[in-house]
């Protein structure tokens, strides 16, 4: 997509080490469909969509549309009226716009003219006509209101429904899964989320930049480095701050350790859901070694609060790289052995192969990202974008598989484990002494920045606008689970109900990231 229609955020943003090029432009509601259609024809996908309330500044509302292009990110801002704000439905262009549009209406009353009109986040907590994200929103008071949700009904001989959740029999976040089945075969799955909506965007408004960093790192706890980096990148872009080279190398090291720990845990869980408990015990043992070394070297098992605007909050002490390198050697040996066991285990492969297939065409239509996209032959990885330091030097290999089934998603995880180990060794070899952080100047009021980082699950995006005086005017964080949850609805069709936990785990999506 050509950047010509868009005003650059600033030369500093496009030139910042560690930042993927980004552009920001204003589009009137009447221009939005044409702009998105042109972008889609050139291969762009919808990376995020959200709303803001600008009425206190004497304006109306705004719709924000982030489009991922070959060159970087195009951030469209669409001014809307203060009364009955509306815009053209985008779900006919980008299928993954549907739920995002529904959420924008539930929160702000910003209506898409078309598409699915059902509510998404409200769950009976707010009266009709009240929108909780508006700056003048009132306390809804105590009490639960009727919450009849019109699930799509499938009719026919022998068809019945199985309702699972939102409360699950385990330590798991709430989500509702409505299966339409004949016997054990799934004809349709419909999801409903939003049970743990936390109002993150509204909580970020007015926060200091430092407090915002802490909150961003807790949106989805298993992706704290990815969220922390994306937030820091957005702040740095708005402030025109260039983080030190050592800080960028350390961020990459932290991001790969986060990816490594989560993939190890998921490979164990996939073994367990496939009836192979040995895999769970072995991979969780390996994951625990990663987490313990994290705690020893960085002060936190999950690496929270380490990435901050301006750099990193904690540098590595002298000699700390050696145990990381030693751990890479040990993990590579053990994971190779476990991969051979997984691939030679007939029972496990019988469960994995041809189970939960997501075709390349369907993944592309749904705008799927991250490892789920790569398992369906889509070469999507923000780390491979030009200008994203230090990955532009590291040149990561993009792990691709073509089958799109549980086996493919497991193999992508194996491939990415070995690639993370390779990248970690390369970082250890190349990282040089220097500052780990610089003071982060305060962005001017109205300054904007965007951060885009490839987390272990997929791409995390943060768009931020400054209110001046070191405060946040607005900030939105987007999790890849928004794009990927609908893919699960497609992948489960034609499979049997007992295979759903395995298919679900092969995606391992975030409820918390979805319920912002």
Broad CATH class of the largest domain: Mainly Alpha
Q: How does the helix and strand content classify structurally?
A: alpha+beta
Q: Write down how many β-strands occur, each being a DSSP E stretch of 2 or more residues.
A: 15
What is the third-level CATH name, the topology of the largest domain?
Answer: Cytochrome-c3 Hydrogenase, chain B
User: Please, what is the average pLDDT?
Assistant: 93
Give the name of the CATH superfamily of the largest domain: Cytochrome-c3 Hydrogenase, chain B
Strand order of the largest sheet: 1-2-5-4-3
Number of helices: 17
Percent helix among the residues? 25-40%
Strand proportion, as a percent range, falls in 15-25%
Shape: globular
Rounded Rg: 22 Å
CATH structural architecture of the largest domain: Orthogonal Bundle
Ends distance: 29 Å
Low-pLDDT sequence parts: 1-15
Instruction: Please tell me the total number of domains.
Output: 2
Largest sheet: number of strands, sense, barrel closure: 5 strands, mixed
């Amino acid at each position: 997509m050509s950047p010509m229609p868009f005003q650059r955020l600033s030369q500093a943003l496009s030139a910042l080490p560690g930042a993927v090029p980004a552009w920001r432009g204003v589009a009137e509601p009447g221009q939005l469909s044409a702009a998105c259609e042109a972008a889609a024809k050139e291969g762009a996908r919808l990376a995020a969509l959200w709303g803001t309330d600008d009425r206190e500044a004497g304006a109306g509302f705004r719709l924000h549309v982030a489009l991922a292009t070959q060159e970087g990110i195009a951030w469209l801002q669409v001014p809307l009226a203060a009364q009955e704000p509306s815009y053209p439905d985008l779900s006919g262009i980008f299928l993954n716009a549907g739920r995002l549009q529904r959420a924008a209406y539930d929160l702000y009353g910003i209506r898409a003219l078309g598409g699915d009109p059902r509510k998404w986040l409200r769950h009976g907590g707010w009266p009709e006509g009240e929108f909780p994200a508006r700056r003048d929103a009132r306390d809804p008071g105590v009490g639960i209101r009727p919450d009849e949700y019109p699930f799509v009904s499938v009719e026919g001989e022998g068809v019945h429904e199985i309702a699972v959740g939102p409360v699950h029999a385990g330590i798991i976040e709430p989500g509702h899964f409505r299966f339409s089945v004949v016997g054990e075969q799934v004809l349709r799955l419909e999801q409903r989320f939003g049970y743990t909506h936390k109002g993150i965007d509204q909580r970020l408004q007015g926060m200091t930049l430092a407090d915002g960093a802490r909150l961003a790192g807790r949106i989805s706890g298993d992706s704290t480095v990815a969220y922390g980096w994306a937030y820091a990148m957005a702040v740095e872009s708005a402030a025109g701050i260039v983080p030190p080279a050592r800080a960028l190398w350390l961020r990459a090291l932290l991001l790969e350790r986060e990816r490594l720990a989560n993939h190890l845990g998921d490979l164990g869980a996939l073994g367990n859901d496939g009836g192979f408990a040995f895999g769970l015990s072995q991979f969780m043992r390996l994951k625990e070694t990663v987490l313990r070394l994290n705690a020893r070297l960085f002060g936190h098992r999950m690496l929270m609060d380490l990435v901050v605007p301006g750099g990193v909050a904690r540098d590595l002490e002298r000699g700390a790289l050696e145990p990381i390198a030693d751990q890479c050697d040990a993990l590579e040996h053990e994971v190779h052995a476990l991969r051979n066991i997984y691939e030679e285990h007939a029972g496990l492969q019988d469960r994995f192969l041809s189970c939960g297939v997501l075709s390349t065409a369907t993944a592309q239509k749904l705008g799927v990202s991250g490892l789920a996209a790569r398992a369906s032959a889509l070469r999507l990885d923000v780390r491979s974008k030009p200008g994203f330091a230090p990955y532009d030097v590291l040149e990561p290999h993009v792990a691709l598989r073509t089958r799109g089934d549980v086996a493919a998603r497991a193999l992508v995880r194996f491939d990415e484990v070995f690639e993370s180990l390779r990248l970690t060794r390369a970082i250890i070899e190349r990282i040089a002494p220097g500052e780990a952080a610089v003071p982060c100047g305060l962005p001017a009021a109205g300054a904007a920045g965007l951060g885009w980082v490839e987390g272990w699950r997929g791409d995390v995006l943060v768009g931020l606008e400054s209110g001046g005086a070191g405060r946040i005017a607005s900030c939105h964080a987007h999790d890849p689970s928004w794009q990927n949850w609908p893919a699960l609805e497609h992948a489960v069709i034609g499979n049997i109900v007992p295979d759903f936990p395995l298919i679900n785990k092969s995606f391992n999506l975030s409820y918390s990231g979805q319920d912002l």
